[in-house]
Amino acid sequence: MFTGIKKWLEVRIGLDDLTRTQLTEYRVPKNVNIFATLGFVALAGYAIEVISGIFLLIYYTPHPDQAFRSVQDIMTRVPYGWLFRQIHIMGSYIMIAAVMLHMVTVFLMGNYKRPRELTWVVGGLMLLVTLTFGFSGYLLPWTQLSYWATTVVTSMPTAFPYVGDFIARLLRGGDYISGITLGRFFALHIAILPPIFLSLIALHIFLIRRIGISATPFGTSDEEKRPLTEYKKKTYPDGLPYYPYFFQKQMLMVMIYVAVMFFLITFMPTLFSPDEANTPANPLKTPFHIRPEWYLLAPYQMLKLIPNKFLGISIQIILVGIFLLWPFLDSQKEKNVFKRPVLRGVFIFLLALWGILMFWGRY
Amino acid sequence: MRYLFISLLVIFTFPSFAVGGYKEEFEREFMSKPWAGEQIEENACIGCHVSDKMEPKLKNIPQNWQMSIHYENNVSCHDCHGGDPKDPDMSMSRQRGFIGAPKYTEVPEFCGKCHVGILKNYLESGHGEALKKTAKGPNCVTCHGSHKDEQFIQKANIDIINEQRCTKCHSYERAMIMKQALFLTEKKIGELEDNFGRLKKEGVFTADDEKPLFRTHADFRALFHTVDVDLVKNQTDDFAKRLSIIEERVQKGFREVRFRQNFSGFLLFLFVGLAITVFLLGRRSE
After folding, report:
1. What is the DSSP string of A267-280?
2. Are the C-beta atoms of residues B224 and B232 closer than 8 Å to each other?
3. Distance (Å, rounded) from C-alpha A142 to C-alpha A49?
């Protein structure tokens, strides 16, 4: 049966040739390290989110009167609904962590440098879309936490003169978070963002395959310092085959990723669920501690510390711009960050600052 | 490209400083009390009571109310005192149902608009009779407080019955016997409430099971307001039966939590096992 299907496909799409050119003859650099698998891990994380999200979509009702109840029903009445929801929640948090770690390692290995500027920009955009996924999904359970965290985040644009109120109203569909906001965020979460994200993934993978995997700058000499005058795909004829060598590494990391997710579900199921996450939204009662998700805590704390909100938000937009366009701003040819003390110092400082602001923002 | 970007950065930052104070007042507020603040300020009662024109003894009322069980349950000024909180000019109009503060003897009827069962039993009790006959007997606020001075209405609990409070009017002996009669049932109700809180935190939906507990608790509180020790003792068994049914549901909830933990623990080990297998396969093929 299996041989029959294989043969049927072989004569039609050239399955053997496809497998050979894309898997076994496709080679990766000999010194490729485990960090190069993080992009695949993030992709697997996204697939987990899609599958669990589709399951939740079957039972979820995007209406202010029923959203909270439907989520509670998923948690209690739907068989294994709690598992799918926990996978969706915990999966989203560690997926964002994986995406961030992926970008940090790409940055440290200088893999954003030419000719891979576009790959970096598309990856950066994917991170922003991922954060928007998280932000839009946060409101959907219609809890006190989600309602008020969304209230805080959607009131941020009001710091901008002239257009601020318009942006806030556009997001909310009115002056306050309401059923209209829930409808908009639901549409954003399940219908608008996924095709954008899928297009970016396709473009990202296309660029990786078209340009070729970047060699790790540590250890061996860097071969990519040639002048960029014409298109030349980076290949590694003496490298290791993608399948099974690198694929096994990727699968190992995916298994570890899923194990970490189940570790959190088993031993810390309420890590991201304070009491407000189990209380239905009440527009008339502001909880004492409103704070957004962990990955937005640092920018949130930064906004609290800068007395002028417009300036605070402007600085953040500028920082995002620098982050996205960094490959165009960094003109040095040296890829190895260990040979660039200033960049290394700035990077460590920013990482420490991020960590401090994140923990500060929690309290 | 770099120079263009730096120029844009400067151009963008400079006006940020220049127009930053444009909406300073609102900006200062928007992080701490975003939009709810505006909704609460729309409440004319609160707006007026917190203002400087209010006489000092009435100024703390909103603050005390915000610490009360009424606030926790979304019971606002107009729910008890009537009036229109959305219209400052008509907020205290009789046409809009404003009844203001009740007289001492009217307090039970005032609170009894919502606490119906308790009112009925209170009026038939020694406390209610005393108020009716002498106009000086204890009313609701004697034991539960109100929002005047530094008081706020707390969630009722058995500790309200104490020597200091009861001996203001009579000896403590009888009150102590009543407290003892209430103790076990109240303790059980408290435990169940805590357990529901724990289950809720674990992501188990408890609202449907909390309703019978709330009803049982309300019935028990209403019974207590008869201040009839014998009646409380006679009916304690019935309440124990009702509570044991709820207890079963709580235990079912905890069993569910344990199952979830075990099941996800199984999946954890499954994926750890798969990771080890993939790792060993990789080593072998290397």
Report:
1. H-TTTT--GGGGSB
2. yes
3. 19
Residue A275 lies in a domain: yes
Nearest to B107 by CA among B67, B147, B68, B72: B147
Low-confidence spans in chain A with pLDDT less than 50 = none
Give the gyration radius of chain B's Cα atoms.
29
What's the CA gap between A182 and A175, in Å, rounded?
Answer: 13
Residue A143: strand, helix, or coil: strand
Based on its alpha-carbon atoms, the radius of gyration of chain A, rounded to whole angstroms, reads 23
What was the pLDDT predicted at B24?
A: 47
Question: In total, how many domains does chain A have?
Answer: 1
What pTM was computed for the model? 0.81
Residue A156 is given by DSSP the state G
A166 in a structural domain: yes
Least CB–CB distance from B12: residue in A286, A307, A314: A314
pLDDT per position as a tens digit, A81-92: 999 999 999 999
Separation of alpha carbons B255 and B184, rounded Å: 25
A326 located within any domain? no
Residue A241 parent element (H or E): strand A240-241
Nearest-by-Cβ selection for B281 from A248, A273, A331: A248
Assembly ipTM: 0.87
Find the CATH number of the domain harbouring A168. 1.20.810.10
Residue B205 and residue A73: Cβ atoms within 8 Å?
yes
Of A244, A255, A263, the CB nearest to B285: A244
Per-residue model confidence as pLDDT tens digits over B85-114: 888 888 898 888 898 889 999 999 999 999
Residues of A in contact with B271 (CB under 8 A): 255, 258-259, 262
Residue A190 burial (CB count, 10 A): 19
Q: Are A158 and A312 within 8 A, CB to CB?
A: no
Q: Which residues of B touch A248 (CB under 8 A)?
A: 278, 281-282, 285
Domain membership of residue A110 as a residue range: 34-217+244-290
DSSP string spanning chain B? -HHHHHHHHHHHHHHHHHHGGGGHHHHHHHTTS-SHHHHHHT-HHHHHHTSTTS-HHHHTHHHHHHTSHHHHTT--HHHHH-S-TT-TTTTT-GGGT---SPPGGGHHHHHHTT-HHHHHHHHHSHHHHHHHHHS-S--HHHHH--SSTT---PPP-GGGS-HHHHTTTS-SHHHHHHHHHHHHHHHHHHHHHHHHHHHHHTT---HHHHHHHHHHHHHHHHHHTT--HHHHHHHHHHHHHHHHHHHHHHHHHHHHHHHHHHHHHHHHHHHHHHHHHHHHHHHHH-
Q: H or E element: which one contains A43?
A: helix A38-59
Would residue A302 count as lying in a domain? no
C-alpha A208/C-alpha A36 separation (Å) is 12
